[in-house]
Amino acid sequence: MSGGSVGVAEADVIVEALRHSGREGIPLVAFIESAGARLQEGAGALGGFGRIFSANVALAQRVPQISVITGTSAGGGCYSPALTDFVVMTEQATMFLTGPKIVRQALGEEVSAPDLGGTGVHERNGVCHLVSADDLEAVALCRELLSYLPQTAGDAPPVRRPEPAPLDDPGMELPSSSRSYYDVRAVIRGLVDRGGFLELWPRWARNMVVGFARLDGRTVGIVANQSRHLGGIIDTEASQKAARFIRTAERFRIPLLVLVDTPGFMPGSRQESAGVIRHGAELLRAFAGATVPRVTVIVRKAYGGAFITMNCKDLGARAAFAWHDAEIGIMSPRSAVEIIHRRELEHPAGEETAERLALLYAQAQLSATAALRRGAIDDVIAPHETRTRVIEVLFGRRRFPRRVGGTPAPAPAAGLPEPPELRDAAGCTLWFTGLSGAGKSTVAALVARELRERGERVEVLDGDVVRQHLSKGLGFSREDRDTNIRRIAFVADVLSRNGVCVLVAAISPYRVTRDEARELMGERFIEIYLRTSLDECIRRDTKGLYERALRGEIGQFTGISDPYEEPLAPEIALDTEREAPEESAARVLALVAARLGRAEVAA
């Protein structure tokens, strides 16, 4: 109707659908074919699109959003899809801000709709993630995408029955010459579960491959240099592609496997003019800022800044491995020799000398064992053991020590136990935060009971109990509250480092102190936000504390006279107004199972 144009009424319906998706924690799939704003409604229609865009952005922190473009979408009908997590286009679909007629009138340019904004354009510029032959195939792609994603941004990704990859997959054999190319997707298929790899943006920035797969039944995101295109070199578009994917994986708590084979960043005036520094920095920012578990495997070469940028150990990788023939260093051996030995190479036998010196340099400085000695990687492994080692680190109990100044932490002396961070693996802290009356203690008690029944070591630190015993004498000033939370965090850190599942139920109203607890415990910290309205908390208050606070009889009461700062990116958000405590507890247990790699926890 009306070409799918959007007026005020249509915008209101769309906004309500988006908000409903967020309230109920339901992923959103939108089928879009729109002429844009309805001309007859003028600025009112434009304002309607503004409300839609705002709702898209707000929903991004809550549930997955997929847009399916089935026909022609113009103007505002393009921006809403571009704000969602994934865009699927049918082969006949087109998207453009300004249609061919307006382009001809404004610029005198004759261009067809497909050439202006067809799938052939948008699958190469990063607007479109996937292309389908028709609407039915688009639906199938949406289902496949959703099979990898959590129900909400706070949930753990779904777990399926493991389907091991075939042994001795030929795709794991790389060419003997580092100058020969291969298809990294064959390596990926040899590592992940049967059923393959869902590649995103397959025709955009083809020197970088990203997508979803499964390892041991669990969702992982893959970021890999593609030797087959530009030798795997990183340029501006490859940086953009990888950074966008990493941020998506972070939002949905999806661990990352990074496969590295790159000679570095693309040199030249064109790349410098295109902002390769800025885009490379965005890729660095994406990896360094990601909190999901990440494992890097250098399969052939990693030179210079690209070694750092592709999720090196010091950028936060949980572990970094290299295959036996990998080369790791500042630059290729031939380039290094031409700088270091330039005078020797001026002699008649320079070419022969260069080859010999390059070989010696590679053996001494670039080998995987040299990188291991320097602490740049954690281990040198064979291709056939890569899958097992990656699963062990991403989902199992293995941890590698951090290094100081590039030097690996010393191994424990013979006969002595490993330090807590190596001994523990299953310990964690479930930090329940929310207003008084949100249900923190209730849900924590249910989770604790289930964990104990399944043989886990569990301790509960209730905020009121801790204040009565550990923090006796503290008041409710900001300083005293911060002190109380820091004491709770210290105890939780000690216990969780030694294999205990600690459940903290405390209002902990200030974001900065919760972030301090997260920094202290790192990956052992799981923030659980009980999202409950103030009205509902007041309704549940049988002691009448909220009423007394509203009358001014109780000062510095969180939610009334003192602020509560909502978490920005909790591991899970529970809607305790709409779901029973048992449902909330089940969601938490599923997340714990994914974090600990223990399927029986969620059984």
From TrEMBL:
<feature type="domain" description="CoA carboxyltransferase C-terminal">
    <location>
        <begin position="166"/>
        <end position="418"/>
    </location>
</feature>
<dbReference type="InterPro" id="IPR051047">
    <property type="entry name" value="AccD/PCCB"/>
</dbReference>
<dbReference type="InterPro" id="IPR034733">
    <property type="entry name" value="AcCoA_carboxyl_beta"/>
</dbReference>
<comment type="function">
    <text>Catalyzes the synthesis of activated sulfate.</text>
</comment>
<feature type="binding site">
    <location>
        <begin position="434"/>
        <end position="441"/>
    </location>
    <ligand>
        <name>ATP</name>
    </ligand>
</feature>
<dbReference type="InterPro" id="IPR027417">
    <property type="entry name" value="P-loop_NTPase"/>
</dbReference>
<dbReference type="GO" id="GO:0005524">
    <property type="term" value="F:ATP binding"/>
</dbReference>
<protein>
    <recommendedName>
        <fullName>Adenylyl-sulfate kinase</fullName>
        <ecNumber>2.7.1.25</ecNumber>
    </recommendedName>
</protein>
<feature type="region of interest" description="Disordered">
    <location>
        <begin position="153"/>
        <end position="173"/>
    </location>
</feature>
<keyword id="KW-0808">Transferase</keyword>
<comment type="pathway">
    <text>Sulfur metabolism; hydrogen sulfide biosynthesis; sulfite from sulfate: step 2/3.</text>
</comment>
<dbReference type="InterPro" id="IPR011763">
    <property type="entry name" value="COA_CT_C"/>
</dbReference>
<feature type="domain" description="CoA carboxyltransferase N-terminal">
    <location>
        <begin position="1"/>
        <end position="161"/>
    </location>
</feature>
<dbReference type="GO" id="GO:0004020">
    <property type="term" value="F:adenylylsulfate kinase activity"/>
</dbReference>
<keyword id="KW-0067">ATP-binding</keyword>
<dbReference type="Pfam" id="PF01583">
    <property type="entry name" value="APS_kinase"/>
</dbReference>
<dbReference type="GO" id="GO:0070814">
    <property type="term" value="P:hydrogen sulfide biosynthetic process"/>
</dbReference>
<dbReference type="InterPro" id="IPR059117">
    <property type="entry name" value="APS_kinase_dom"/>
</dbReference>
<dbReference type="GO" id="GO:0004658">
    <property type="term" value="F:propionyl-CoA carboxylase activity"/>
</dbReference>
<keyword id="KW-0597">Phosphoprotein</keyword>
<dbReference type="InterPro" id="IPR029045">
    <property type="entry name" value="ClpP/crotonase-like_dom_sf"/>
</dbReference>
<keyword id="KW-0547">Nucleotide-binding</keyword>
<keyword id="KW-0418">Kinase</keyword>
<dbReference type="GO" id="GO:0009317">
    <property type="term" value="C:acetyl-CoA carboxylase complex"/>
</dbReference>
<dbReference type="GO" id="GO:0000103">
    <property type="term" value="P:sulfate assimilation"/>
</dbReference>
<dbReference type="InterPro" id="IPR011762">
    <property type="entry name" value="COA_CT_N"/>
</dbReference>
<feature type="active site" description="Phosphoserine intermediate">
    <location>
        <position position="508"/>
    </location>
</feature>
<dbReference type="Pfam" id="PF01039">
    <property type="entry name" value="Carboxyl_trans"/>
</dbReference>
<comment type="similarity">
    <text>Belongs to the APS kinase family.</text>
</comment>
<dbReference type="InterPro" id="IPR002891">
    <property type="entry name" value="APS"/>
</dbReference>
